[in-house]
Amino acid sequence: MKNYYLISAIFLTTLFCSAQNYELGIVHISNYDFKVVAIPDFDSVGNTDISDIGFTIVLPSGSVDVVNPVGLLTARTWTVQQFDATFLTGQGLGDGSKDVFQFNLPPGQSILAHASGQQIDLVNFQVTNDPVSGQMNFLLNSDPITMGAGGVLDSFYNSNIDATTTQDYFSMPNAILDNFMFSTLSVDSLQDSSYELQVFPNPVSKNLNIISKLSGTFMLIDANGKEIFNGSIKNGRNTIDLSRLNSGIYFIRFNNDSNITIRKIMRL
User: Fold this and answer.
1) What is the DSSP-derived secondary structure letter of residue 204?
2) 106, 124, 239, 244: which one has the fewest Cβ atoms less than 10 Å from its Cβ?
3) What residue range is the signal peptide (predicted)?
4) What is the tens place of the pLDDT at every residue in 214-252?
């Protein structure tokens, strides 16, 4: 019986420890300025000691680049290495539609404590040439490009969270902050019936109308990716009151089961 309890205790301890992870997210700051944050799913017990971090951002192939990386952890410098679509296809990786940018924080020391769900600022960067279509997203560790690159493009978050050993605690990109649609950087009042999602007036001071020919659900998200409100579209329409929100940029994320549509709105 004692052996049974011992085995159970070891199993539960292992299960608890394995649940301590960090997600990564892309946060839109303004215009074409962005930052990447780490989001823990646990409260730290005292300080954690961040060693090194890596991840890879995907952009449409062509003239759009990542520039001006600025580390947001004190006295830590990031490097960014581009692998364009031509190089990747020459290595038998990808379909020629993606350029990837590998961000790396070399081994060092950053001491900090955090709460579960807190956004830990890692690095700020800019996207060039003002794209208005396509998207930016994380390259998944399960992507064939990553798997074929021999670990060079892997995402990881190496830290010592309990004063024992440093290990990788990265889990996955955050479900809300895993990508950014560049089309949201143009503020449009979409009222043409050919659109599957109409959002107006835009800019808005009070009541925002959300209209779609398709049934689905929507979320109102702030510029940091935090969900403010959610609802559904039935009988083609929903109206939400934004008068209590602060002025600024928000996003409507509409999901109709077949795809996701995002609209940028401006609260006056």
Assistant:
1) B
2) 244
3) 1-19
4) 888 999 988 777 889 899 987 788 999 999 998 888 888
Residue 172's H or E segment, with its range, is strand 170-173
Residue reference for tokens 């679509």: 85
CA distance 91 to 86: 9
**Coil vs helix vs strand at 94:** coil
pTM above the 0.90 mark? no
* Residue from 194, 159, 196, 198 nearest 76 by CA: 159
Question: What confidence score (pLDDT) does residue 28 get?
Answer: 87
Query: Which residues of the chain have a pLDDT value below 50?
Result: 6-17, 188-195
pLDDT for residue 3: 53
Q: The domain at 197-267 falls in which architecture?
A: Sandwich (2.60)
List, for residues 41-69, the tens digit of each pLDDT value.
Answer: 999 999 999 999 999 999 999 989 999 99
Q: Which two tokens stand for residue 142?
A: 């399960």
CB 52 within 8 A of CB 107: yes
Q: How far is C-alpha 268 from the chain's CA centre? A: 26
Range(s) for CATH 2.60.40.3080 in the chain? 197-267
Q: What sign does the dihedral 168-174-177-179 (CA atoms) show? A: positive
Max CA pair span of the chain: 71
| H-helix segments, the chain | 2-18, 85-90, 144-148
